[in-house]
Amino acid sequence: AQTVTQSQPEMSVQEAETVTLSCTYDTSENNYYLFWYKQPPSRQMILVIRQEAYKQQNATENRFSVNFQKAAKSFSLKISDSQLGDTAMYFCAFMKHDGGAQKLVFGQGTRLTINP
Amino acid sequence: SQTIHQWPATLVQPVGSPLSLECTVEGTSNPNLYWYRQAAGRGLQLLFYSVGIGQISSEVPQNLSASRPQDRQFILSSKKLLLSDSGFYLCAWSRDGNQPQHFGDGTRLSIL
Questions:
Q1: B98 vs A42: CB contact, 8 Å cut-off?
Q2: A3, A27, B25, B65: which has the highest count of C-beta atoms within 10 A?
Q3: Rounded CA gap, B19 and B13, in Å?
Q4: Contacts of B42 in chain A (CB under 8 A)
Q5: Nearest chain A residue to B57, by CA
């Protein structure tokens, strides 16, 4: 069974700093997708970034980028020039296909606080 | 554009009462639909998913059930709520293939 582990329950940085959130996963599949979701205090789950396992190039979305290490099964999220609005819970997720649907397996989350 | 609506936003129910949470998607057809539960300070756990009308798959044994009476409508139900059913429930949709899931705003359910 696939598992996703986020080893940092909480992190805190100053505004404008760069922060990296860690995520490791376990799977025997070769083709899969990985995601980072953000959940602000409003509790809405917002997609931040996605990575296809067959792509060697790391995904980037503006200030958000990933460091995908397939052999190590590591998928970290880097937030550059952090902003107060980045304060949220961040969840790493692994997507697998089963029965025609895509199933997401989530990590336990990292609570990130950006301080002014 | 596609939107997902989930209601109610907050619900307080006594133990033993029934439950009905509704989720609808607009702007797309034949979406894959999902119900998740999030315990306080934890990640999301997939409860049910549906790839078509009347097709429901359950991920974990529980006191809840799901139905999909229409293409873009997904309902989470219970005949008798337990204290352990408290939590934050999220509905999500996705297209086929390897598309990401998009979530509703969630329902906070408190059982007294």
A1: no
A2: B25
A3: 8
A4: 108-109
A5: A99
Q: Per-residue pLDDT tens for B67-94?
A: 999 999 999 999 999 999 999 999 999 9
How many Å apart are CA A2 and CA A31, to the nearest integer? Answer: 13
From the list B101, B6, B10, the residue with the least C-alpha distance to B49 is: B101
Residue pair A92/A35 in contact by the 8 Å Cβ criterion: yes
Per the structure block, which two tokens stand in for A53? 């396992």
Residue B101 in tokens: 């899931």
DSSP code string of chain A: --EEE---SEEEEETT--EEE--EEE-S-SS-EEEEEEE-TT---EEEEEEETT--SPPEETTEEEEEETTTTEEEEEE-S--GGG-EEEEEEEEEEETTEEEEEE---EEEEEE-
Per-residue pLDDT of chain A (116 residues; tens, 9 = 90+): 789 999 999 999 999 999 999 999 999 888 889 999 999 988 889 999 999 988 889 999 999 999 999 999 999 999 999 999 999 999 999 998 776 778 889 999 999 999 99
Sheet order of strands, B65-70 included: B3-7, B19-26, B73-78, B65-70
Report residue B42 as tokens: 């934890």
The whole-angstrom distance between B89's CA and the closest CA on chain A is 10
Peptide bond into B8 cis (omega under 30): yes
